[in-house]
Amino acid sequence: MQVKIVAERCQGHGMCNMVCPSVFKYDDDGFGYVVPGLEQVPANLADDVSLAEIQCPERAIVIES
Amino acid sequence: MARRRRLNEALSAAREYDPYTSEWLEQEFETYALLREELPIARVESRGRTERGDTGGSWLLTRYDDSCAMLSDTDTFSSQASSYPERPWIPQAIDPPAHTAYRRILNKWFTPDAMTAMEPHLEQFAGELLDKMLEKDEFDFVADFADPFPTVIFCELFGFPLEDYPQLMDWKNTLMHSSDGHGRGRALALAKAEELGIELDDDGEIPQDRLVEIWSNTGAALYEYFGKLLETRRQAPQQDMISWLIDAEYEGERPLTEEELLDTLFLMFMAGLDTVASALGLIVKTFAEQPDKRREFVALMDDSRRLMLAIEELVRYNAIVLLPRRVTRPVEFDGVRFHVEDQVSCPTMAANRDPEQFENPDEIIFDRVPNRHMGFGHGPHRCLGLHLARRELRIALVQLHRRLPDYELHPDHEPELFGGMKGASSLWLRKA
Fold first, then answer.
1. Does B107 contact chain A (CB < 8 Å)?
2. In this predicted structure, what is the pLDDT of residue B211?
3. Domain region containing A33
């Protein structure tokens, strides 16, 4: 599973960080990014990353499996 | 025939649409559902409360998808949509790209990490207020908790001196709640009307076209207050947001001008002193009326993951904000032709109850997934303070229900509700 945040869509609602803080963090301007190295999602975090994708109000998270 | 009748009812509802009263709240969700089915983009005749100009009508969006599309398209739908006491508020009434630059400054103050650092203080202050409130067997939850908890915290964060707190709340209530069913707001506006020599109409109300004088007068007092506060902080900086704004740089190039500082303070003041208080009052009212849901919440609240989802669902269910926009260019929107200067309003409470997006939208489902609700807005203008708001709601609701899992509406005191940017201005409860 590959995950990314489409920067143009992200508005910094923070849902992904609440659901899966180890993969999704914030930059200084308050927008989300995927922690480098975790774009290829570890199996034990796959469910949380999927939930983050579903919950994102701006649909800014894209998963490719 | 039944179909035609329903369409006619929708047309009438659109014509009579006025969300700025407490009576409106009695049938708001039925009316939004009717409009969503029959006239999802409805031409409404507004009372011209916040709109530029006065008598012009506007459009009302009740579908979730339409609302998302509108709020994301800031080129077509400008946020500079109301009349303002002095100038448009920063950043709420500013469009990108300037909006992006202002938000970049403000976002840094409201990061999740910064808000998490406040949690011990939030816990402690919530506990203090609740312990005091619960010394009584019956109490006004809004007066004793929902109002002071988020607003005092906000004043501290911002750097508004706490001795000015009652005055600040009075200014806020005069500006935001002069005629929407808010008792204190109405009393303040009437007193101001007398002071300004404004005659009441035959119903004893302040005429709509004179309300603007009350707003201007109050807005001017507030601007003067902010000006003095800025001067004080320039002399003696503190660890607060005002001092930090004074030092902030626009695009890393220049400090904010005096006008920019004032317009930012004004918006922070309007947004920070009302929203969480309103949401808290409505959520606890919901829990008083739906004891089964309250018990479900109490049973899940020690599970941090379920609690996180539950707070989102409560915000979805109790959305309070109407989001106005102004059309900047002729555009066809799902077959409807919007003209330049048309007003478009997106009530988040309507979008959040769209069955196309939320199954059983009128039911609280604590573990609802997906829950891409609009309670904190959508697009570039999404609520700046949402990381603080979420923490305040979570801490307030958990602390309250740890101390008091069972309560009911007081039989002798009706809740006092207000429309518009809606909420509860009084909510008497008693221990069950």
1. yes
2. 86
3. 2-64
The token pair that represents A51 in the structure block:
């939930």
**Which H or E element spans position B292?**
helix B291-300
Give the closest-approach CA distance of B103 to chain A in angstroms: 8
In this predicted model, what pLDDT tens digit does every residue of B365-390 receive, in sequence order? 999 999 999 999 999 999 999 999 99
State whether residue B415 is helix, strand or coil.
Answer: coil
- The DSSP symbol for B417 reads E
How far off is chain B from A18, nearest CA to CA, in Å?
8
Backbone conformation region of residue B107, classed left if phi is above 0, alpha if psi is from -120 to 50, else beta: alpha
Helix, strand, coil in percent for chain A, rounding step 5: 30, 25, 50
8 A C-beta contact, residue A2 and residue A39: yes
Please answer yes or no on whether A55 and B372 come within 8 Å at the CB atom.
Answer: yes
3-state DSSP assignment of residue B410: coil
With CA atoms as reference, report the closest residue to B29 among B343, B279, B355, B344.
B355
All domains of chain B, ordered by start, with CATH?
A: 2-431 (1.10.630.10)
pLDDT in tens, A10-62: 999 999 999 999 999 999 888 999 999 999 999 999 999 999 999 999 999 99
Contact B379 A28 (CB under 8 A): no
- Residue B378: count other Cβ atoms within 10 Å of its Cβ: 26
The upper half-sphere exposure of residue B384, i.e. CA atoms within 13 Å in the direction of its Cβ, equals 22
Return the axis-axis angle of helices B148-158 and B119-133, rounded to nearest 10°.
140
* Residue type at position B352: N
Number of structural domains, chain A? Answer: 1
pLDDT score recorded for residue B50: 45
How close B28 gets to chain A, by Cα (Å)? 24
Contact B378 A57 (CB under 8 A): yes
- Helix runs in B39-118, H state only: 64-72, 98-109, 112-117
The domain that contains A35 carries what CATH number?
A: 3.30.70.20
Q: Cα B418 to chain center, whole Å?
A: 12
End-to-end CA distance of chain A: 4
Q: Report which of B364, B346, B270, B309 is spatially closest to residue B61, judged by C-alpha positions.
A: B346
Radius of gyration in angstroms for the set of CA atoms belonging to chain A, rounded to a whole number: 10
